[in-house]
Design goal:
By secondary structure, the protein is α/β, with parallel strands linked by helices. The chain folds into two domains: 324 residues, TIM Barrel (Alpha-Beta Barrel); 102 residues, Immunoglobulin-like, CATH 2.60.40.290. It is 23% helix and 19% strand. The chain is built from ten helices and 18 strands. The protein has a nine-stranded mixed β-sheet, with no helix packed on it. The N terminus is likely disordered.
Length: 484
């Protein structure tokens, strides 16, 4: 599936690096089902283990490795700024408390060394190991939603050398260029060879400048390229000489057990070198994929908490490379923190303090729930704004509801009918259901009260067949709204 036109990554702000992720969760390559089957059985118990403590075997990262918790991450800032929000306790305990990857996605060669040094120095002072995500390869994301990167490979080589200079002598984990090896459909054979050679040089530059850094190359994920194909690409990118392994599942939803099985298949295809291992992004794979929905789908939850105690010698760590709660581009501008996403991911997960068990932990009830929605009361004066962003066969829509009356609306339900065969597949900031062509959207409690003149917004993702006409009539609590 191609990335929808018109949806773009948020531009990283000047100064400290800002996470800036591609949405490659939708890309589905050839499934390596037969190769995965044996490995998946062996590791099936890992899927629900939230802490992984008490491991009997270990990869190349010490089991007691403490990954760095960025005190200036978006989720930490949101928690600090919203102490009275009903979602804050759950988000704070289950997401903000955890270490997450720090992304370097802006091409700033003059400051990259100092930017990196600020992270590694802070981590060293805290006795922790930072996870730094390098995302600057030219023509990244094949010019899609996360297009950008260094001007050319020569500039990239120079930038990576400056990046490496900031790592220092302490331990660090470098996640080198998500998508760069698995996604090459836009490159000619020569361009692919040139990119892989540059990635190999990048790994060598990091090791030369920072001998205690671990470098992991792009391993794609279990439903993308086959294990043998990915191994061939990794070999061409210098994994046997200039890396410590590869990463899988970045910004994706595939289960931990499936990714472990896939990683072992890739390692086997590489000849099982003793020095190579894998790390897996478990930041939002606790419920597995959401069918074909890929852009901020609902019903997901966080997976294994970040740890190097994986219990598997082939797997160095479970990491949160994609920071939970940061949007893919549908529920909010890509890379921005959306509390609704974070709350959905966290509310059904076990607390990180829950003692580990050999079985998937029973879901814990949230320590704080959003206020229960009150039944909609009275008629309403309202206006509705509806803005769709379409691509072939699908679209996202942002809906703004405004109270144009003089009395507060306590709880709202918005209804409309589609004029075509549109089908809602996921939604955010509202509970959305569909019966035939009629769609009903209701508040989530915390956004149910609308004072006079106030507005709220929600969004959804949907499919369509031959046409996607915008709705022309809306009712709020039974009263007709004007269309803005």
């Amino acid at each position: 599936m191609s990335t929808p036109d018109g949806v773009r990554r948020a531009a990283p702000a000047p100064g400290r690096p800002t996470p800036d992720r591609p949405r490659h969760a939708a890309r589905r390559g050839r499934a390596a089902a037969l190769a995965l089957a044996a490995g998946a059985v062996a590791v099936s118990m890992l899927a629900g283990t939230q802490t992984g403590a008490g491991a009997a075997v270990q990869g190349s990262l010490p089991a007691d490795t403490r990954f760095w918790k960025d005190p200036a991450s978006q989720v930490v800032k949101w928690v600090a700024a919203n102490p009275s929000d009903s979602r804050t306790p759950v988000i704070s305990q289950r997401i903000a408390s955890q270490p997450q990857g720090v992304w370097f996605a802006n091409y700033r060669p003059d400051t990259v060394t100092s930017d990196v040094r600020a992270i590694t120095a802070a981590a060293a002072a805290a006795g922790q190991v930072p996870v730094l995500v390098v995302y600057e390869i030219p023509n990244r994301d094949c010019g899609g939603a996360s297009a950008g990167g260094a001007p050319d490979l020569a500039a990239y080589d120079a930038w990576v050398t400056k990046f490496a200079a900031g790592l220092g002598s302490g331990r660090s984990v470098v996640v080198l260029e998500p998508d760069s090896i698995a996604l090459t459909t836009c490159l000619s054979a020569q361009q692919q060879a040139d990119r892989f050679a540059s990635l190999s040089r990048a790994g060598a530059a990091v090791h030369a400048a920072a001998p205690n850094a671990k470098v992991y190359l792009d391993g794609g994920h279990s439903t993308w390229n086959s294990a043998s194909e990915q191994a061939n690409r990794l070999r061409s990118a210098g994994i046997l000489s200039n890396a410590d392994g590869f990463f899988t599942n970045v910004s994706n939803f595939n289960t931990t057990s499936g990714e472990v099985g896939y990683a072992k298949s890739v390692l086997s295809a590489l000849g099982n070198p003793a020095n190579l291992h894998a790390v897996i992004d478990t930041s939002r794979n606790g419920n597995g994929p959401a069918g074909s929905a890929w852009c901020d789908p609902t019903g997901r939850k966080i997976g294994n908490y970040p740890t190097a105690a994986t219990g598997d010698a082939a797997i160095d760590a479970f990491l949160w490379v994609k920071p939970p709660g940061e949007a893919d581009g549908c529920a909010g501008a890509a890379g921005t923190f959306v509390p609704d996403i974070a709350y959905q991911l966290a509310q059904n997960a076990a607390d990180p303090s829950t003692p580990p068990t050999s079985q998937p932990p029973t879901s814990q009830p949230p320590t704080s729930q959003p206020p229960t929605s009150q039944p909609p009361t009275g008629s309403a004066a309202c206006s509705v704004g509806y803005k769709a962003n379409s691509w072939t066969g699908g679209f996202t829509a942002e809906v703004t509801v405004r109270n144009t009356g003089t009395a507060t609306i306590s709880g709202w339900t918005l209804k409309w009918s589609f004029g075509g065969d549109q089908k809602v597949t996921s939604a955010w900031n509202a509970k959305v259901s569909q019966s035939g062509t009629t769609v009903t959207a209701a508040d989530l409690g915390y956004n149910g009260a609308l004072a006079a003149g106030a507005s709220t917004g929600f969004g959804f993702q949907a499919t369509y067949g031959s046409a996607n006409p915008a709705p022309t009539a809306f009712t709020l609590n039974g009263s007709a709204c004007t269309v803005a």
